TrEMBL record:
Top-rank taxon, per record: Bacteria
Protein name: Restriction endonuclease
GO molecular function: endonuclease activity
Residue intervals of the HNH nuclease domain: 180-236
Membrane-spanning ranges: none
Length: 269
């Protein structure tokens, strides 16, 4: 009778991590690591798959076979704790390649990978380097500017908190939040909603920022009625100044900031 496949449960994650690191650091060959995991009751193929994927992750190479969500989460945390931020970024790059590979395969896998994208963004947000977000935002600004205003308004109006965290445009995967901000920037004419200023960049485009009314750390969402388009000065004043909320609904936000009253339209038009 064939033994039933043992599921890779949480208590096994530390062993998989340690054995793979031993192989990665060339303390012994892959077969030894695999045998050690099989001794714990992990199926041979599964052990091989996990060691291979985690090793690819440590090398920053996109892996093909899948690991479960909580294992991925655990490994990223361990990589960050043990090897630091630079290695975490490599691992994130591997995860991104993995996800893009699956997204490119078929549309039907797009949503099922949403949990993994969430993990990806969770760790990307804690790495101090925000280049990736800036690059994405620049790229999205250029894409969005070619879109029809009506399509943008429709897209923003129909946006729900439960929508997938990632979005595919021209076969590239972007963070949905970044697309929302690019769309709002375009809709607001790249002007600060508090002072109307525009900041011209050398390439002829405009620099402006998205600010959250309810901060993300307080579980503020990424829907249009929670995002103001502000110049860097007003963004910081809004985040750090003395803010008194006066009234707010889906189309309006009235507040007092450092003694000055602002009445900002949140209408999508
Ligand atoms: Zn301003």
């Amino acid at each position: 009778m064939q033994q039933e496949k043992k599921k890779v449960t949480e208590n096994l994650f530390p062993y998989i991590f340690n054995e793979t690191v031993a192989f990665y650091q060339k303390r012994y060959v892959k077969n030894v690591a695999k045998k050690n995991l099989v001794k714990l009751g992990i199926n041979e193929n599964t052990a091989s798959r996990y060691i291979g994927s985690l090793d690819d992750m440590l090398h920053g190479e996109g892996y093909k076979s899948t690991m479960n969500l909580s294992a991925t989460d655990y490994f990223l945390q361990k990589i960050s704790d043990k090897f630091g931020e630079e290695k975490l970024q490599k691992a994130l790059s591997a995860l991104k390649q993995h996800l893009e590979y699956y997204t490119s395969l078929k549309d039907r896998t797009k949503n099922s990978k949403n949990g993994l994208w969430e993990i990806y963004y969770k760790y990307r947000n804690v790495t101090k380097i925000e280049d990736e977000d800036d690059l994405e935002q620049n790229c999205l600004d250029k894409i969005v500017i070619k879109e029809d205003i009506k399509a943008i308004v429709d897209d923003l109006m129909n946006l729900k908190v439960s929508d997938p965290v990632s979005v595919v445009i021209n076969k590239k995967v972007f963070k949905r939040d970044n697309k929302t901000i690019s769309q709002l920037k375009y809709l607001r004419g790249y002007c600060c909603q508090m002072c109307g200023i525009q900041i011209l960049k050398a390439d002829g485009s405009f620099y402006i920022e998205g600010a959250h009314i309810d901060p993300k750390k307080d579980w503020g969402n990424e829907l249009p009625n929670n995002i103001l388009i502000l110049c860097p000065n007003h963004h910081k004043e809004f985040d750090y100044g003395n803010l008194e909320r006066i009234s707010r609904d889906d189309e309006h936000f009235k507040f007092k900031l450092n003694g000055e009253i602002y009445d900002i339209s949140l209408k999508l038009e």
